[in-house]
Amino acid sequence: MIPKNRIIALSIALMLLAFPLHAFGGSIFIGETNDLIWDNEWWNQSDGKSHQDTAFNVNWLVDTYSGTEFIPANLAYLGKWDGGWDSDAGWTGDTPYFTGDFSGTAGYWQTTDAYSGGPVYYSLKAGREFELYYAGNDLNDIEVLWDTLGITNHKGKPKALSHLTFWTADNPPGPNPVPEPSTIALFGIGLLMLAAFSRKQARHRQKRQPVPVRVQNKRA
């Protein structure tokens, strides 16, 4: 018979999987300004403006990506948010497909109902540097976190966001880059609770077991 406490812990773990509190998507880092600077072929074919997240530069980073994950190519511009609080005045593009917090050194973004789907890249521009990330394909009801921790000043502090540009790709998309961290964390909590209850039950059983008494025969 399964102990009652173990059933409770297992039920909690299953509930956490079925009803995650919130979904935060992860992203794959594709490349940055320094990757262009150190690429001799890029210098031969570019205009030398490695600090700008232009279509030429972001496509170059995708084409030369050396990671093992599958990423779609042929990036096309969707629009961008200038650094500042969420407002239509900060969006540049035909339709505001994305909303979120685009201020300071960290925030989030998510797709709006106007976005019909497809693979999404985004580039973070701060100071004279930028970074490119692949967010994935099916991003409905997912908040993607961003930060400029990799773009720092001479004191090592992250620079404030200048703008965040969104891109899509022509190639068929692969699966989203990483599982949702919140779901993994909640599942881990459930497993830890289950393990704790199991250890408690094991100790309780050990205490209840009778201690064997050794009887010595007396010599005649």
Provide a descriptive summary of the structure in words.
By secondary structure, the chain is of the alpha+beta class. Helices cover 29% and strands 25% of the residues. The chain folds into two domains: 49 residues; 146 residues, no CATH class. Strands 2-8-7-10-3-4 form a six-stranded antiparallel beta sheet. Strands 1-9-6-5 form a four-stranded mixed beta sheet, with no helix packed on it. Helix 1 runs antiparallel to helix 5. It is globular, with a radius of gyration of 26 Å.
Strand order, largest beta sheet: 2-8-7-10-3-4
The count of helical stretches stands at: 5
Q: What about the largest sheet?
A: 6 strands, antiparallel
Shape designation: globular
What string gives the helices and strands in order? HEEHHHEEEEEEEEH
What is the compact description of this entry?
With 220 residues, the protein is of the alpha+beta class.
Topology, please?
Elements: H1 4-18, E1 24-25, E2 28-32, H2 33-37, H3 40-45, H4 55-63, E3 75-82, E4 91-92, E5 98-101, E6 106-111, E7 120-126, E8 129-136, E9 143-147, E10 163-169, H5 181-208
Parallel strand pairs: 1-9
Antiparallel strand pairs: 2-8, 3-4, 3-10, 5-6, 6-9, 7-8, 7-10
For this entry, give a set of tags.
single chain; 220 residues; alpha+beta; 2 domains; 6-stranded antiparallel sheet; 4-stranded mixed sheet; 5 helices; globular
